[in-house]
Amino acid sequence: MRRRPTLKKQQKRVDSISQAPRRGSHSTTSKSVMLDLVELNKESARHSSYGDGNCGFRAISVCLGYGEDQWLYVQHQLLDELLNSYDVYARVFTDGIDELCNSLCSSQSLAPAEHWMVMPMTGVLIANRFGVILNYLTKRGDITFFPLLRGPKHFQYHHAITIAHVYDNHNVMVQLEGDYPMPTISAY
Predict the structure, then answer these.
(1) Largest CA distance in the chain
(2) Domain with 86 in it: what CATH number?
(3) Is residue 164 in some structural domain?
(4) What is the pLDDT of residues 115-144, one digit of tens each?
(5) Who's near 23: CB < 8 A, 6+ residues apart?
(6) Which end of the chain has the smaller Cβ count within 10 Å, N or C?
(7) From start to end residue, where is composition biased (Basic residues) (predicted)?
(8) Are 130 and 62 in contact, with CB atoms under 8 Å apart?
(9) Which residues contact 52 (CB under 8 A, 6 or more apart)?
(10) Do the domain assignments include residue 43?
């Protein structure tokens, strides 16, 4: 049986961010993406200019309408989600929960690899915390995450967001247009 980690220092940081940043009216021009090919042109990958290890959190922040500079807010919200339902997630993520927790416990602008977004586990947290349907596109296989811990009374509408893992070490926001097949649903 796993015990809840003692992360009082990280919890204080999460508690200090009590309000969500204001969502901006942000638009991105991008081409449609075939789910089996993740090839982005420079225009659609313009949010990928930061090579600081926080690209996954930046991509999610942009998808949610907060802007690139609010990546730390997103990261703290995910840590809060994990810590508040730790017992549930410890049963879901039988292996790797310590790695997941560690990946969310950094506020460094240059994040070392152990603090990069851990997928697919972080995808579950994103869907549950923000009430979104997350499509995660990779060359290894595309995955869709649905919010599972809360019902329709918490989320009034369906909002799908998409990020892609490119160049084997980078995540970017992708704007899918028109009808597209839904990737495989996450096993979590």
Answers:
(1) 48
(2) 3.90.70.80
(3) yes
(4) 889 999 999 999 999 999 999 999 989 999
(5) 64, 65, 66
(6) N
(7) 1-11
(8) no
(9) 109, 110, 111
(10) yes
